[in-house]
Design goal:
The protein is mainly alpha-helical and 134 residues long. The chain contains 5 helices and 2 strands. The protein is elongated and about 80 Å long.
Amino acid sequence: MPAQTQTWSIAELATEYDVTLRTIRFYEDRGLLTPERRGTVRVYHPRDRVRLGLILRGKRLGFSLDEIATIVDMYDAEPGEEGQLVYLLDQITTRRADLEQRRKDIEETLLELAEVEARCHADLETLRTHRASS
């Protein structure tokens, strides 16, 4: 089936992206997704599928729903709008700095945990040796 005419049900998208139906409905309520309605059935087009992927990626990267909405709405806008591109680049810079700081914090925490773990092993060995010699 050509990509232009392919559609998905809410269940198909939920399965593909490993999210709940409620999650998809929530994004609809927020206006981030706008499926076609055929009676009571929601019909999702390629645009909705791409937007859902962008929304979920944005959430994984720590963007707020408002930030995601702004960025996802750019998907529908004409390319090359200077203000949109400047905004997106600013968001990328901010998010990158945040993620770099998180990575640094995680690396420091892992080092500290390794030190504590080594001390615990040493203390445990000392206790076992002391108990065995008593």
